[in-house]
Design brief:
14 helices, 21 strands, 488 residues, 22% strand, alpha/beta, single chain
Length: 488
Amino acid sequence: MSLVRPTDPVPVDKLGRTHFIGLGGAGMSGIARVLLQFGVEVSGSDARDGHTLRELEQMGARVHVGHAAEHLGTAETLVVSSAIREDNPELVEAHRRGLRILPRAAALGALLLDREGIAVSGTHGKTTTTSMITVVLQHLGVDPGYVIGGTLVTTGLGADAGVGDVIAVEADESDGSFLMLSPKIAVVTNVEADHLDNYSGLEEIHTNFASFVDRVERTVIAGIDDPGARKVAELARERGKRVLTYGEAEDADHRITRVRARGFTTEFTVHTASGEPIDGQVAAPGRHNVLNAVAAVVVADELGHDLEVAVEGVADFAGAARRFELKGEGGGVGVYDSYAHHPTEVEADLRATRAALESFGEESADLAGGRVIALFQPHLYSRTRFFAEEFATALSLADEVVVMEVYAAREDPEPGVTGELITSKVTHDRVRYVPGREETVRTVVGLARPGDIVLTMGAGDVTELGPQIMAALAERAGADTAGSGVQS
């Protein structure tokens, strides 16, 4: 993958018939769904069939499994992601015909034109924060549009056109595509080194965020506990933007205090210069989720809504798919799934899990003693190579660590870069490198005992193992019960 060349968005009513290559992807399908709701004729193809394609077909899209030039039909606009290769037959045919070709982000940018667009950017927390903004605004009586990189639990959808002017979307910095968005309001959650297969380093990332700030029409909202986001806030002020900040820092406009775990719910207090402190809670573990929640509250405040009611709305958040998502329980072991694929995200989730287990233990001696078992699948060879030591440090927070083989995604294998590169650096000896999937499930089940939490982590297909682990744990528990002579 490489940085995309910015392309100006086209108003939705000028797109004409629009074809998507990779229609089944989370980002592409969300945009297609909203365009269908706006009355645009949509078609698309994907390498694999699935529920998403069939759902779009039911909405009126013309869908194809596999790629072929004739799938373009009478399309006037082609939408592609940076993952599409230049030799894709549909892309080749579009070039031959001289069709308008838009990167995915330019199509997303079209949805923001002439609307009260809110774009959430940052190295971590984009999906969760965008989801929380949506839920808070819904609580306030707004029916916002949204396009997120996951499924919002409260609606079961990853995108919707909404009613009215407000729309919240994720602004992806990974390939520079956020430079095709021109939101009224932008949230910058944090800015760290990542996607170093595209960027030369943190300085270039900061440069791109500065360019993103230039595209924001009104307000930049930044989480200033993070040094990178603080720097972006300073740049925004220098450029004459209105800047609002949030965090535990003393100089935050919306200052957070008294963050405390109550199981997998986290309580907090928000202070502003203009009113009394407001207590709130979010049904998600960890300080990082409190920061995400308060970012959503600041957005609502900037849109003119009552701050106290906005804080109440955070409690309605029921999660987003793959963002510390409860998959279920088997044999007294809780199984959760996380998209964490950067060391900072891994550390945040493990600290949150630890705090939740400790709070359970404080409430009841019967709940004390639970352990954290981390099953981690590294994502990308380049990221594994760059951050092996940082991943190891973060994973060392778990009581037991199982690391799978690297999920290649768009990259070719690199000699010497495997999951073992991480396990060799973990600071305790309760760690295993298990490349095989079936062996991984057996290993995790063998380690787990009642009261433990298993957390599957990574941006690849590790998410598929959670249900398998639960089933094996339940089967083991049933066998143990039968063996003890207990009857139901």
